[in-house]
Amino acid sequence: MCMDRKERILQALKVYVVTDERDRGEELLPIIKQAVYGGATAIQLRRKKELGRKFVELGRAIAEFTKEHGVMFFVNDRVDVAALVDADGVHVGQDDISVVDARKLLGDKIIGVSAETVQEARQAELDGADYLGVGSIYPTVSKPDAGYTGLSGLADIAKSVSLPIVAIGGIGIHNAAEPMRHGAHGVAVVSAVMSAADPTEATRALRTIVDGYDTMRR
Amino acid sequence: MCMDRKERILQALKVYVVTDERDRGEELLPIIKQAVYGGATAIQLRRKKELGRKFVELGRAIAEFTKEHGVMFFVNDRVDVAALVDADGVHVGQDDISVVDARKLLGDKIIGVSAETVQEARQAELDGADYLGVGSIYPTVSKPDAGYTGLSGLADIAKSVSLPIVAIGGIGIHNAAEPMRHGAHGVAVVSAVMSAADPTEATRALRTIVDGYDTMRR
Questions:
Q1: C-alpha torsion sign, points B13, B15, B20, B24
Q2: To the nearest whole angstrom, how far is the Cα of B95 from the nearest Cα of chain A?
Q3: Which helix (H) or strand (E) is A74 found in, with range?
Q4: Could you give the CA distance from residue A97 to residue A100 in angstroms, rounded to a whole number?
Q5: Would you say the pTM of this structure is higher than 0.90?
Q6: Confidence grade of residue A192 (pLDDT, cut at 50, 70, 90)
């Protein structure tokens, strides 16, 4: 990977905000805007039950805003939606379209992969992933079916691959420093921002914590 | 539309078998094979809850078989999956990715659209759809939330557009002749084949009915 690309990705992973599955998708954009004003470095649109038409519509609205603000935008799972809304990339889980297949459709867009174990992380690196979403770090309400990796699992993965890593799962202001100390280059959050009374302040607090670590030198 | 393309599509719409949503997707391929042996002219993989990895895997297995047998293969909704498995095209509903967007990603692949009303049918034609799936013709158990078009609605749509039309919704051997008499170029079925005791015989019986109408001259 050329260094410019990797540095851009490292920068984007610092405070990576993933949308929740609330019924009314149109409520997401105002919160995303607040997160960006608070210093979010990436937004991921994750909508497991959304149908294609609405997914594209939401994606276009978010892409327009994130481009204006120089924030990276990822679409979860739907490679077709990522391509149509010209997102910066896609994030795929182990049951979603594979990295190799996503690469066929997306060319040099950024592809992130969820990894729970060292084996999944190494495979993703071999397959050409650009970054890893590693977790769950803590128990989580947003995605109760996610496997548990924990801080020690995160540290093991960080030693095993050279890919940028964003930690995910149960992370909030009170516990965001720990994954940073265990090898993560940034933190991904869902409810810590999406359900915050003040998403701008919540994001700002997370950004302050993460900015205390010089992730570019890892 | 050039005539070769339209004729190929008219041929494909005669007995168009849509998969059901059974839990075990791997059970679909044996039934699809039996349907093809009975004369199915097209297969559509419709899996609303399937995740991407498995969807692609199923799609590749079906595409390999349908190509060998000269039967058209469509993927429902997921444009990315259609592209990856090199299906003949995609079928989209009114809430799925739009025809215009699907065309951007699929180029000259075939794009079918579900239409319940004359207005939806005309819009799909303007948007560049290649064929229409019109229904529900009869009440249906496979898709209880589908709108009701009926035979008279089908006849109205057939008079309003020049696109090939496959009728769908509650169609079986006992009632397949009616939509053919009301302007359809073929019939799409789910449970009539997917739940048949003998999918080959069920498909063959449908094919005999449809072959009694000269749809190429409409």
A1: negative
A2: 5
A3: strand A72-76
A4: 8
A5: yes
A6: very high
Axis crossing angle, helix B118-127 with helix B150-160, rounded to the nearest 10? 40
| Chain A CB contacts of B54 below 8 Å | 95
Burial A76-94 (b: 16+ CB within 10 A, else e): bbbbbbbbbbebbbbbbbb
Cβ(B206)–Cβ(B174) below 8 Å: no
- The pLDDT > 70 percentage for chain A reads 95
A74 bridge partner residues: A44, A89
Residue B218: C-alpha distances to residues B110, B120, B131, B132 (Å): 20, 21, 14, 15
User: What angle, 0 to 180 degrees and rounded to 10, lies between the N-to-C axes of helices A150-160 and A118-127?
Assistant: 40
Asked if B80 lies within 8 A of A84 by C-beta distance, the reply is: no
Structure tokens at B180: 């053919």
**Minimum Cα–Cα distance from B56: chain A residue:** A97
The pair phi, psi for residue B105, each rounded to 5°, is: -90, -25
The two structure tokens encoding residue A103: 């690469």
**Taking CA A60 as the corner, what is the angle to CA A168 and CA B122, rounded to the nearest 5 degrees?**
135
Residue A147: CB atoms within 10 A of its CB come to 15
Candidates A52, A53, A95; nearest CB to B54: A95
Residue A191 predicted with pLDDT over 60: yes
ipTM of model: 0.93
Active site residue A143: yes
Nearest CA to A91 among A59, A119, A69? A59
Q: Which helix (H) or strand (E) holds A140?
A: none
CB under 8 A, 24+ apart: contacts of B75-79: B75/B44, B75/B45, B76/B18, B76/B44, B76/B45, B76/B46, B76/B47, B76/B48, B77/A51, B77/A52, B77/B46, B77/B48, B78/A52, B78/A78, B78/A80, B78/B52, B79/A52, B79/A80, B79/B105, B79/B106
Report the alpha-carbon distance of residue A38 to residue A60 in Å, rounded: 21
- pLDDT higher than threshold 80 for residue A94: yes
Amino acid identity for residue A158 in this structure: A
